[in-house]
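Cast an eye over this sequence plus tokens and explain the fold to me:
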Amino acid sequence: MSTVPQAAQVATNTLGQGSAPRLVAALIGRPGRTQTVFVQCEPWCTEPHASEPEVAVEDITHYSDMAFMQVPTLLSEDTAHSELYCRVTSDPVSSDPRMRAAHVLYGDGSSMDAFLTPDMADELAHDLVAFAAEVRGMARVARAANEADAD
């Protein structure tokens, strides 16, 4: 006979399963007056909910790791011209059901992010692959022109 309370058994049994939500610690409150609560967290979420406090439980948002790239410029080796990033996110208490569902956040460092359904993210990825092929072709043209000028 187990001496572990039933609730603890359920939480323990769901940890580590790839598609099952898990219970994680989250820090809630204002500086100097925080408490730890346990919240349901998505399996893809990598946000350390217990590292920085949220004022209220409803402020917790789930985020995956970020895919990130910067666009350099030959005119300034110390500064990126722009950046692009994507991550899976979900706001579990949003009034908009589309924001409660898992979706892909796409940003470029501006003040406005784009929120993509999985289908929209697939379409964007397709377009980025085509764009990358065009950029690679332009690099070949520029390289060939520079080599021709060097001769």
